[in-house]
Amino acid sequence: MSVAMLHAPSRASTSSSSSMIPVSRQNTISSHDGSRSVRQSKRMSVTALYLSMSAKEKELEIEDDLARAQKALRELKAKISSQSKKNFVLEKDVRYLDSRIALLIQNRMALEEQNEVVSHLDDAADLQEGSFPNDEKTQKYGNLLYMLQTEPRHIAHLCRLVSMAEIDSLLQTVMFTIYGNQYESREEHLLLTMFQSVLTYQFDNTPDYSSLLRANTPVSRMMTTYTRRGPGQSFLKTVLADKINHLIQLKDLDLEINPLKVYERMLSDKEEKDGSLPAHLPRGVTAEQAAENDEVQAIIRPRVETLMSIANSFLDTIIEGLEETPYGIRWICKQIRSLSKRKYPDAQDHTICTLIGGFFFLRFINPAIVTPRSYMLIDANPAENPKRTLTYIAKMLQNLANKPSYAKEPYMVKLQPFIQQNKERINKFMLDLCEVQDFYESLEFDNYVALSKKDLELSITLNEVYATHALLERHSAELAKEENSHLSQLLAELGPAPDQLPRKDNRAINLPLYSKWELPIDDITNQLDVTQEEIYFMEAKSTFVMILRSLPPNTSITRRPLRLDRVAEAAATTKNDSVMVKKGIRCMELLSQLQELGVIDKEDGFALLRDEVEQELVHLGSIKDKVMEETRKLDEVYRTIRDHNTYLVGQLETYKSYLHNVRSQSEGTRRKQQKHQVLGPYKFTHQQLEKEGVIQKSNVPENRRANIFFNFTSPLPGTFVISLHYKGRNRGLLELDLKLDDLLEMQKDSQEDLDLEYVQFNVTKVLALLNKRFARKKGW
C-alpha cells in the first residue's frame, strides 16, 4: 500500500469500512475485549486504517443484510446524538425559567428584568444552516477546534477554571458538539482522555479524602452530564425503567419510617376516624418520643422489611446489568480505582469502592432513581408515597456504596441489615466495573484514520464557537502561559472573541477541522509499528471479505473451504462491474506477493489467510443479531428522548406565553384591550380529556362518562374557569376558578394532581391544553 493511497483525500465508504470493522467493534464494546491479542488488535486497527482510505475510484458497495443493519444503526445513533443536544439546550432554558417564574409569581421582578428574560428566549426555534462570515475565520476556528478536540488537556484545564455560571455553556459545547458523536470510538476515547486529565488533577489537588468526587463543582457537573449521554440513558432505560414504573403504580403503599412523620400521620388517622385523640397520644412530641411509641414501632417494623426487599431487587437488577454498563462509565470507574491506589497506596478495596460509588451511584444511578421523570424513565411525576420510597431506595444504595452515616437521620439505622447483607457483593460489583481494557492503542490508530480522511467536520453553532473563544480568552493567562504554544498562537491570530449573537441571527455551521501544524506521514509502516507483510496480509483479508460479501451466497465460489485463487479469479472476470474486477485483480497480486514473502503457501490452499477470512465471515454473520438487538434498544431510547423533547417544548411554550402576558400586563396596554373580552368557552368531552391524558383519574361511573363534558373559559388574562356539565342539564355540576400562577407553582413544586372532585386532572397536561387553546389566540 503506497503512501499516496494513505493520503487520498476522500471520505471512507461506509459499506467497505464496516465490512471489516463491524459496529460492535467500531464502538467501545468488543474493542475492549481482553481476550483479543495485541497482534489481532493491531491487525484490526491497521485494517480500519486501510479501509478508511478509499482512493479516488469508487469503492465496492456492499448491500448485504449486515451492511443495511449497520447503516440503520449508525443513522439511529446520529439521531440520538443530535436529539440529546437539543434536549440539553431546552433543559438549560427551562432551568433558567424555573428560577425566574418564581419571582414573577411573587411580583418581585421589574419590567426591565421581564424584558431581558423574554429576549433571552425569543426566536428559540431550530437554528437555520449557515456559514462563517469569511473564509479566514473559518480556517482559524477550524484550527482551534481541531486542537481542542485532539488535545483534550486544554478542555480539561478549562474545566478547572470556569465558574458554575459558565459550566452549562461549556458542557453543551464539549459533551454535545466537540465530542458530540456519542457512539463514535475516536470522539468517545478523546473525551475519556479529557476526563482522565480532570480526575488526575482532582486527586492530586484534593487534600481531604472524604470530599473527593463529592463536592458540587463544574467538574462534578461535567461527570453527571456525561452519564446523561445516549449510552448512559440507554443503560438506565434497560436496567431501571421497569423497576421504577412498577413501583410508582403502588400509590397507596406507604413505607415512611421516620418515626415523627409516622406518629403525626397516625394521629391524623385516629382523629379522622374517632373525632378526637386519646390522652396517651399528645401532640408536639419529639422525634425520640415518637420513636419510643409502641404503635409507631409496630407500623415501622414491616415497612423496614419491605424497603429492604425492594432495595434488594433494585440492587439485583443493577448488578445483573454489569455487561450493559457503558464502556465509558466503567472506564471512569477504572481510573478512579487507579488514581486512588496511586494516591493512597495502602488503601483497602472497600475504601476505594466508596470513591467508585461516589461516581457510579451518586452521579449516575441515584439521581435517576430519585427524579426518574427528568431521566425519561417515567411519563409523569410519581405520587407522594412512591416518590418517598424511591428516595429511600437511593439513600440505601448510597449508604451501601459509602460508609453509612446516620447522624442526621438516626431512624435509618433500622436499615443497617441491608448494608451488612450486601456490602461484600456491592464491593465486588464496583471492582468488576473497573475490569475493562484501555483504549490507547485503538485511539492512536483512530487518529491516524482521522488524519487520512482530511475531511473532518464539526457541526456547531456560531454562538458555541464564540462562547468557547470567549472562555479561552478569559482564562488565557492560565491556559496559554507560554507565548509560543500553539494555543497562544491561535488565540493571538483570532483576536478578541465576538459577542454572542441574538438567537435569530445564530446559525448552525459545518466547520472543517484540520491542524496548521500537521506533519505528513512519510512511512506508514514505521508510524504504526507494523511490517509491510502485515499490511499486505490485512489488505488481502479485507478485500477478500468485501468480495465474498458482494457475491451471491450458496454458490460453488463461496462454498467452504474457500478457494481464494478461484474467488479472486471470479471477481476479476465479473461482467459490467469494473470495481469488482479491480478488487479481483488486486487479490491476485496480493496472493502472489504474500507467497513470495513466505507469509502464505499455495500448497496448503493459502490456509493462514483462508482461515482468517472464513473466521471473519462467521463473525460478521454472528454480529447481525447483536446489531438488530442494539437497534431495537436504541430505537426505544430515541423515542423516549423525542417524547422528552416534546414535553420540554410544551413547558417552554407555557413559560414563554406566561412571561409575555405578565409583561403586557405590566405595561398596562393589552390588559385594557382585553379587560371585557371573554375567550371561550371551549368544549371537551370526558373521552377527549381522558385520551389526551388531562384526566388521569375519574370517579365518574363508566356508563355515564359519555354524557359528561367540560367547558374551558378565560374571562381575564391568566384566569380560567373550568365547568363540568351533564348532557340535558342546564346548570353545571361543578365550576372551578384557576389562576395560571397557581398552576405554574404547582408544576414547579412537582404537584401533578389537580382535584376537581369528580375527576383528577394532570397539571402539566392542563397547562399544555390551556397553552394550545388560549395563549396563541390573544394572549393569557
TrEMBL record:
SMART domains: RasGAP. Residues 10-24 have a biased composition (Low complexity). Residues 186-402 form the Ras-GAP domain. One of its GO terms (molecular function) is GTPase activator activity. GO terms for biological process: negative regulation of Ras protein signal transduction; signal transduction. Pfam families: RasGAP, RasGAP_C. The keyword Coiled coil applies. InterPro entries: RasGAP_C, RasGAP_CS, RasGAP_dom, Rho_GTPase_activation_prot. Keywords: Coiled coil. GO terms for cellular component: cell cortex. Residues 1-40 are annotated as: Disordered. Residues 55-86 form a coiled coil. It comes from the Eukaryota. This is Rho GTPase activation protein.
